[in-house]
Amino acid sequence: MPSLRHAATRTLPMRALLFVAVATLLAGCNNPPPPSINNAVAAPARQYEAAQLGRGKALFQANCAVCHGAGAQGAFTWRVAGPDGKYLPPPLNGTGHAWHHPKAALKQTIRQGTLALGGNMPPWQDKLSEQDIEDLIAWFQSLWPDEVYQAWWEIDQRALQARR
């Protein structure tokens, strides 16, 4: 029969291993900024005109803020499906997933909405012009931190190259 001392020396390494495993798991739970896909090519400086940003903000406040929030912060629980299985509006301020999508996809989502995909967003193609949509996107992208914009720009460039 093993002694108590022998059993204690066997559990100590197991406890240390368990501690290291849990610490490693928890260290991976933070949300670092999105990685740059290609550090060799920097996105060009954002050159929005004040008038474009003003139009985009006004359009956003009039049409989008009721769902996405005045600061484009989205619904607090946007990552959790509601009782109907649908997700609430995501943030568009760079803290959500909008930056994962190339500009063509952002424009298509605004034009067509997400109702056909099981979402809640109505189509805006009959209410917003192409210029309105460009202005809206420029406004909410102006809220994005530089590293988020850089990551989005690289995604957009790859999408443009794939379409050629």
What does the radius of gyration come to?
Answer: 23 Å
CATH superfamily of the domain at 50-163: Cytochrome c-like domain
CATH class category of the domain at 50-163: Mainly Alpha
* Count of beta strands: 0
From the 3D coordinates, which CATH architecture of the domain at 50-163 would you assign?
Orthogonal Bundle
The low-confidence runs, each spanning 5 or more residues with pLDDT under 50, are 16-33
Characterize the biggest β-sheet.
none
Helix content: 40-55%
Describe the protein's architecture and organization.
- The structure is a single chain.
- The chain has helices at 4-27, 50-63, 65-68, 103-112, 130-141, 146-163.
- It is mainly alpha-helical.
- α2 (50-63) packs across α5.
- Residues 16-33 have low confidence and may be disordered.
